[in-house]
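re: ur question from earlier - yeah i can do the single chain one, its not a big deal. heres the input i used so u can compare w yours
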Amino acid sequence: MALQIGAVAPDFEAETTEGKIKFHDWIGSSWVLLFSHPKDFTPVCTTELGALARLKPEFDKRGVKLMGLSVDPVDRHAKWSEDIKETQGAAPNYPMIGDTDFNVSKLYDMLPASTSGDPLTRTAADNQTVRNVFVIGPDKKIKLVMVYPMTTGRNFQEILRSIDSLQMTAKHRVATPADWKQGEDVIIAGSVSDDEAKTIYPQGWKAPKPYIRIVPQPK
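and the output i got, formated as tokens:
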């Protein structure tokens, strides 16, 4: 059974490129983007890790920590980082887990519980289910899950857009419509009655239908 939105993100201890961490302690009061890749020295993931390194200031602005994961050992991550810098213009500037015992991959339902053996003998195809994105809130709960195939590079602009929505809707009782971007109008959540909405939005709202109540994005 895959982890569901709203579930507590499993805690774990792991070796990373920045030392040993205990995940929940490492999260602290931040948001987290935990993303996985099936194998070091693979082409699509090389572009992704470089893209994330270049975008790290955008995640920093939003109070989001980045954490990568592969079943390969930490020393291979370090070697791969050199290739990423050379080909993508930026090396990973965030920790990457060396999940050599498959513990984290199993906890997050990316590999079967029966998985065992030497991670270095496994191919990317063996680990193709390890292509996930988890956005985790400061309450340690999973807010969003995305799963990508090996041949489709991740869209980190969409992930940033989703985080903008998640963070705003966590503070305000609103929802974001299709293709919403920061600064655009939002929708009053269905859990808010019209009487409550009049108190929260005394200036009123646009309602093309009674169940679609549109207001400017809350400040």
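The mean pLDDT is 94. not sure if urs matches, ping me
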